[in-house]
Amino acid sequence: MKLQRTNRLRALAAGALAVSGALVLTACGSDDNSGSGDDGSSKAASNIKCEGKGNLLASGSSAQKNAMDVWVKNYQAACPDTQINYKPTGSGAGIQEFLQGKTAFAGSDSALEPEEVTQSKKVCKSGQGIDLPLVGGPIAVTYNVSGVDNLVLDADTLAKIFDSKITKWDDAAIKKLNPDANLPSTKIQAFHRSDDSGTTDNFTKYLNKAAPNSWKYEPAKKWAAEGGQSADGSSGIATNVKQNDGAIGYAELSYATGNNIPTVKLDTGADAPVEATTANASKAIAEAKVVGKGNDLAMDLNYTTKAAGAYPMVLVTYEVACDKGNDKATLAATKSFLKYAASADGQKALADIDYAPMPDEIITKVRQTIDSLA
Amino acid sequence: MSIDSAPASASPPPPTPVSTAGGKKPTRPGDRVFLGLARGSGITLLVIMAAIAVFLTWQATKALGENEGNFLTTFEWDVNAEPPVFGIAVLAFGTVVSSIIAMVLAVPVSIGIALFISHYAPRKLATPLAYVVDLLAAVPSIVYGLWGALFLVPHLTGLYEWMDEYLGWTGIFEYNGGAARSLFTAGILLAIMILPVVTNVSREVFKQSPKMQEEAALALGATRWEVIRMSVLPFGRSGVISASMLGLGRALGETMAVATVLSPSFLIAPSLLDPGGGTFAQNIAASFKEASPAGVGREALIASGLVLFVITLLVNGLARLIIARRKEYSGANA
């Protein structure tokens, strides 16, 4: 027993050494990644108007986490008196915390539900919660098929693939869309998210609207179709698509470009198939209609657009705040930060990290609404 | 055989003189303080366990009240639906099956390693080998998960194809292509993770097998293997069983490693090599971050945690029972 105890101690020590060693190594490794945001900050710093002081708490959507990171970094470089703390806890939790009055604003992948608006009247006292669309992004369909590097699919085929109705890559429907490609007879491995996700919600919204005959499931954060394989998080999808020949999956564009995975071009009915890029996504978002009432800018996306170069598989994420009755202690800082995020500089910083800037018409409305916050 | 029932006069000391707890009351102040401290610790542990049980039950009742499906048989986990529908059938199946696969793979190997270290290996090799096995326990489970997802999964397809060819007729080892992200892969990973626990305890037990008996057997002309078969293994059986139960407890509750290598879904795949399934702990880890505090998401996860808690208690209780039956030989108490 005595010998045994020293064994454990030594094992522990060695283990601790290995772990701390690994930590040191990873710490070095991660430094490079933040480089992309740097060039944005020096330019942007001059245009930020600092107002208010203190701690700004916010939480919500993880889809806009990277955008928030860049905004917060740039904003904080200019305004050291304000501490902004955005926790990417997920849209549901973000809205909940906002409705409990714990945060200044929430990030959310979907607009407020009617009952959430009713609830918000308690926190906002004289007003109600409103949605401010600030970040857009293309959802990329990534694939890994050996010998194929220019894959074109349409909504209907995508729906059938993800519903396990099309199971081989050399299926007639895929061949028809890719007459020149050398499609193998590999089995299709369709990867979907295993966790509840705003990306899934928006992806299935697109399938539901653009391919109503082939996608019968209600859009939801939780994957509804049976079959296929699943993985946790966008990074899990990217890893698995990269690893498996015959795989196809969906994730925010940055995960595709970051991992060097090819993305599917969408045949929307326009003259040429549309690639998943931030510019193309912005074009599709420009076709969206604002359906929110009053100051609420909740949007209804046009998933079936046939405009040239418009990539309709997009998601728009919102910041949720009160139109009136915001907490006085944080109001000035909230307005100032959101104003920066909606400014030309703030929106321009998005394109560098694979998010889509909001189209002019909408962002102008957003700026006006932010100015009117009280 | 008969050697099995040898008197306890051999090397492990008879347990009786150690504890006099029930008998006389301690009189000297040092004894009294120590008794108080020990008793306090014991009571604290009970209080903590009771608090966990009460918390789980209390939180779970809310979710169970609103659940539209049958908690035990529903193949679904839709806590944000109106009304919520969820059940643990798939999770219970996945938890038990992956743990059984882990046990089947790990226990024989563990016994082999333990015997090698305690009876075959030269001292120079045995000590470092024991360190290495101990080190396996110090690796965080997420590291196993990453290794599993990035290295093990892509390298398992060959094994899966082989199993499909020779064992496919059983139905449960049918492989339909695709990434090897199944309950079987989770089982393999769990087997590696429970190896150190089972090996360590087994080794301790084997080391305490009566030297006199072993030497007597050798003197009678038995080979090394015969000595092990007739003296070491029967002596260590209950110890190995309780060691396995400890390992099983770990396999049942393992979270991150399973979550990284499994392709979870709320279906029970007919073949163990097909992607799909899930375990209690994996599901809690995967669903917790999006379980909104508004609905019953968290409470439903807690209800599933309660089931895991009960299963783990049963397993540990079983292990205790087995240990208690042959208390004097148990390595854990030595």
Automatic annotation (TrEMBL), chain A:
SUPFAM superfamilies recorded:
Periplasmic binding protein-like II
Q: Which residues form the signal peptide?
A: 1-27
GO CC list: ATP-binding cassette (ABC) transporter complex
A molecular function (GO) term: phosphate ion binding
- A family per Pfam: PBP_like_2
Instruction: Look up keyword Translocase and say if it applies.
Output: no
Q: Which NCBIfam families match?
A: 3a0107s03
Family as reported in the entry's similarity comment: Belongs to the PstS family.
Protein known as: Phosphate-binding protein
What is the source species?
Streptomyces armeniacus
TrEMBL record, chain B:
Instruction: For this entry, list what GO says about its biological process.
Output: phosphate ion transport
Q: How does it sit in the membrane?
A: Multi-pass membrane protein
**Transmembrane portions of the chain:** 33-58, 85-117, 129-153, 183-202, 251-273, 300-323
What's the main place this protein lives? membrane
Subcellular localization: Cell membrane
What this chain does, per the record?
A: Part of the binding-protein-dependent transport system for phosphate; probably responsible for the translocation of the substrate across the membrane.
Protein encoded by which gene: pstC
Mind telling me what this protein is named? Answer: Phosphate transport system permease protein
List every stretch annotated Disordered.
1-27
Which Pfam families does the record cross-reference, listed alphabetically?
Answer: BPD_transp_1
Where does this protein come from, organism-wise?
Answer: Streptomyces armeniacus
Q: Which GO terms describe its molecular function?
A: phosphate transmembrane transporter activity
InterPro entries in UniProt: MetI-like (IPR000515), MetI-like_sf (IPR035906), Phosphate_PstC (IPR011864), Phosphate_Transport_Permease (IPR051124)
What does the record give as the organism's lineage? Bacteria, Bacillati, Actinomycetota, Actinomycetes, Kitasatosporales
Family affiliation? Belongs to the binding-protein-dependent transport system permease family. CysTW subfamily.
What range(s) does the ABC transmembrane type-1 domain occupy?
A: 92-319
Q: Could you tell me the keywords of this UniProt record?
A: Cell membrane, Membrane, Phosphate transport, Transmembrane, Transmembrane helix, Transport
One GO cellular component term of this record is: plasma membrane
Q: Does the keyword Transmembrane apply?
A: yes
Q: Does the keyword Repressor apply?
A: no
